[in-house]
Amino acid sequence: MNYKGDRSFQGGEDLLFRHLLPDTPEVKRIKSLRGREYEYAEYIGIVEYSIARHFCETDRKIKDRDAVSALKNIRKNFNKDVAFFKPGLEREIVKNLVEILEEKPITHHELKLVIDYVLDVIENRAWMEDEQAYLKWVAYIMNLFTEEESEEYEKSIKKLAARLGLSRKHADLMLMKGEEEDYFEFVEEYGAESEGDDGDEGWGEGEEPDEEELIAEMERRFLSMEDSEKFDFLMENGPEFYEFVGLYISELAEKGEFGRIQELYSKLTAKYDDFLFLYVYMGATYLEIDPALAKSYFELALKALDNLDELSASTKERLRDNFLSLIKKIN
After folding, report:
1. Superkingdom of this entry's organism (predicted)?
2. What is the spatial distance between Cα 283 and Cα 135, in angstroms, rounded to a whole number?
């Protein structure tokens, strides 16, 4: 993406408020920009580009929380002069917003939704336990990283995905790479033929599903499989689709089929080493009905955690504290 950005401003010269249109009842009914990203792509893009460029060209030490703080302050102060905002990231975002709003104004409410959207994107990467998870990602997708930095970033994401039991497809999704059909490759072998030709299924022409929609669709298709298909699928793809292991164990537990759960557990542990999330799911399943057994699974999770070198120290510490707390409560 290419933005002009960083036009010269003098203190007291301009403010966001002057370039915003009055809200209308129709606009006020919009609660979120999810599903409407293309309508507001320029505004979302200029905010994210401003953040990415500041990170890459001005201050490599800023954290995601700094971007969050800047956005929240801007959101609260649309009526303030450009000079009101802190020099650096805040002012750069505001200047670039003023520039685009001069040409294509939107309403107060719409601009708040744009900022809320970017805040959600930042929050959606908080689980990665990297204080610059969003900043690195947005710099990567805006092509502001050097070739070497991009390669290093891709490598780090793929390592993280592998350590968490996520598939290569999930890693590509985290990098915003690949096509929709790549993420449904597994369906071709498992139950796709049973879906029929319902023209209302899936996404319409030109629509692109986001990460949540893709995962929800994969989950729906997995749950529609026969029991034997689910079992066989997890035996072949358990670590790659560890979320489905949890879904299947939960489904079996609700039916009281603990023998089947133990069969799955025995076969998965025989085939895969240090399957952290399997131990966690097993511990959670037996926590109330067999605390001693649950404890043994959480202890196995602790041991597996020590072997996950790619997790950040803070993530490992948080998980370790959670496991130890559960074990202590059981004791």
Report:
1. Archaea
2. 35
DSSP type of residue 15: B
Instruction: Pick left, alpha or beta for residue 180 (phi over 0 → left; psi -120 to 50 → alpha; otherwise beta).
Output: alpha
**Of the candidates 159, 207, 15, 211, the residue with the CA atom closest to the CA atom of residue 97:** 15
Q: From 247, 241, 261, select the one nearest 164 (Cα to Cα).
A: 241
Cβ partners under 8 Å of residue 203, min gap 6: 180, 209, 213
Closest CA to 93 of 107, 111, 109: 111
Q: For residue 304, count CB atoms less than 10 angstroms from its CB and return exposed for 0-12, middle for 13-18, buried for 19 or more.
A: middle
pTM score of the predicted model: 0.56
Q: What is the CB neighbour count within 10 angstroms for residue 314?
A: 11
- The pLDDT tens digits of the residues spanning 87-139 come to 999 999 999 999 999 999 999 999 999 999 999 888 877 777 689 999 999 99
Contact (Cβ atoms closer than 8 angstroms) between residue 88 and residue 58 = yes
CA–CA separation, 96 vs 50, rounded Å?
Answer: 7
pLDDT category of residue 192 using cuts at 50, 70 and 90: very low
Asked whether 78 and 108 are in contact (CB, 8 A), the reply is: yes
pLDDT score for 311:
65
Distance CA 69, CA 16 (A): 18
The count of other CB atoms within 10 Å of the CB of residue 187 is 18
The whole-number pLDDT of residue 275 equals 87
pLDDT at position 274, please? 82
Please name which of 263, 323, 256, 258 lies closest in space to residue 296, comparing C-alpha atoms. 323
Beta bridge partners of 241: 166
Backbone angles phi, psi at 272, to 5 degrees: -125, 135
Residue 163 has pLDDT above 50, yes or no: yes
